[in-house]
Write a structure and sequence with these properties.
The complex is a heterodimer of chains A (about 120) and B (about 350). Chain A is α+β, with helices and mostly antiparallel strands. Chain A contains 3 helices and 5 strands. Classes of the chains: A alpha+beta (about 120), B alpha+beta (about 350).
């Protein structure tokens, strides 16, 4: 009884341990390896990211200037971001949101617009 | 009396992973336990033969999610030994810090699951609440929560700045306070003792004979811990293995509980003595030769054998995980026990099946 009462009072008056997700979201930490983005206008299509990727989720075609990425195969290790010589790849601190359909992301540099993007 | 065969697993509420045991039961008492493994075999060792040896780091991290950082560290240490690379002292300290954070979150996960195995669900939730703080420490310092991907051959990929170090110390103090608050429940509660004390006893001689590893071995009174080898920066920290003598489920939970507090102490020591240097050395060339590396995982001794032939792919990668060593003892202690005690005893060795099957 003496042990339980303080616990009951604490649970009644102290804030809850859980958050009302998704209405209340904890701000992400700095430098978290979240969603991978490519600034396609900076991209030189050197294929360094595709060669170094441990899960082989990036494919680059220099001839037609396309950069495709399968976020479902990605392990978010951030190696591609580290080695990108043009610094066109970067990772947001926010994680990727769930999507209904499993589609790869395809970016094309010319005529400098995104052909298709799923997110 | 006819024997009844009761299948325990591969899908069972108490098991986080698919372990299958055929239990031969006579009037609710186990007479024999026959294991069946192979439900999560992924062939990761063979993948090392077709991937670049730098990319294998991300492969071995996926052998086991809970101790991913320690797998990667062991692999990197093996390759560094083969290529004779000197790792910067700061990187060694950072590896120590992150490996101890992994040990903390693994032990807290296990303590929670263990509480859940005898039906103490509020304790399970409280322990996992603390674990969330440790995962936050991982996320803020490495970028990911569980599979942190910070190791590279020749060092680490992330550094800690002074603000992060002071924030970590403050968080660790909060974690320690909460763990100590739960310690009185976990270690002295009547119901917990009733379900765990005297159950699944492994004597010191038996533990030695079966070649057990990790907290399961230390709970039987054998003082053996791979951290005593002094890999990474453990040689520069004051470290004494946690040993209990009873050898039952209660002793195993006590060892793991005390190891969480010990890990906090080790992280504090490492943060206070951390060296100022680079965090990564440049790596050139390819590995050649054979090596064996041993480190201490949360569950016990982890062994990597690597054979390289000077090409970009490894010739052989062999991983021996702690659960592989601990399962034989489980089969010996189960006969003679009540069926209702099986979940507690099975969980007390902390089986990691994805590790074992790779």
């Amino acid at each position: 009884m003496f042990k339980m009462t303080p616990n009951v009072l604490r649970n009644l008056f102290f804030p809850k341990a859980t958050r009302r997700y998704p209405r209340e979201v904890r701000p992400p930490f700095k430098n978290v390896r979240g969603a991978l983005l490519n600034d396609i206008e900076k991209c030189t299509f050197c294929s360094a990211c595709a060669l170094k990727c441990p899960s082989q989720c990036i494919a680059v075609d220099k001839k037609v200037s396309t950069w495709s990425y399968d976020p479902f195969a990605c392990v978010f290790c951030g190696i591609c971001v580290e080695i990108c010589p043009a610094e066109s790849l970067h990772q947001k601190p926010e994680y990727r949101l769930p999507v209904a359909e499993r589609e790869a992301i395809l970016l094309k540099a010319e005529p400098k617009q995104k052909i298709e993007k799923s997110n | 009396m006819l024997k009844t065969v009761i299948p325990f697993g591969p899908q069972h509420p108490v098991l986080p992973e698919p372990l299958h045991l055929k239990l031969l039961v006579e009037e609710d008492v186990i007479t024999e336990a026959i294991p069946a493994l192979g439900f999560v075999h992924r062939g990761l060792e063979m993948l090392a033969n077709i991937r670049d040896f730098h990319q294998v780091i991300q492969v071995v991290e996926r052998v086991c999610g809970i101790c991913s950082m320690i797998h990667a560290m062991c692999y990197c240490q093996s390759i560094e030994a083969l290529m004779e690379i000197e790792v910067p002292p700061r990187a060694k300290f950072l590896r120590t810090i992150w490996s101890e954070l992994h040990r903390m979150h693994s032990h807290l996960l296990w303590l929670g699951l263990f509480a859940d195995s005898f039906g103490f669900e509020s304790l399970f939730m409280q322990l996992w609440k603390i674990r969330e703080k440790v995962l936050d420490l991982n996320e803020a310092t490495t970028g990911n929560r569980i599979i942190v991907s910070v190791n590279v051959i020749g060092g680490v990929r992330r550094d800690l700045n002074p603000e992060q170090i002071s924030w970590m110390l403050a968080e660790l103090a909060a974690v320690e306070l909460e763990i100590n608050r739960l310690g009185s429940t976990l270690l002295t509660d009547y119901t917990v003792k009733k379900r765990t004390a005297g159950k699944g006893v492994i004597t010191k001689d038996k533990a030695f004979e079966f070649g057990l590893v990790g907290p399961t071995l230390r709970a039987s009174g054998v003082c053996q811990d791979m951290r005593m080898l002094g890999y990474a920066a453990f040689d520069q920290l004051d470290f004494e293995p946690v040993v209990e003598t009873e050898g039952d489920c209660y002793a195993r939970s006590k060892v793991r509980f005390r190891e969480v507090l010990q890990s906090i102490d080790l992280i504090r020591q490492a943060l206070s003595r951390i060296a100022q240097s680079e965090i990564r050395t440049k790596v050139k060339g390819r590995p050649e030769g054979e090596t064996v590396c041993r480190v201490e995982q949360p569950r016990g001794e982890l062994l990597y054998y690597i054979k390289a032939n000077g090409t970009k792919n490894l010739e052989r990668l062999r991983i021996r995980t702690p659960t592989f060593a601990n399962i034989p003892a489980l089969l010996v202690i189960l006969p003679g026990m009540w069926l209702s005690d099986v979940p507690v005893v099975v969980l007390s060795i902390d089986p990691c099946i994805s590790c074992t099957e790779r």
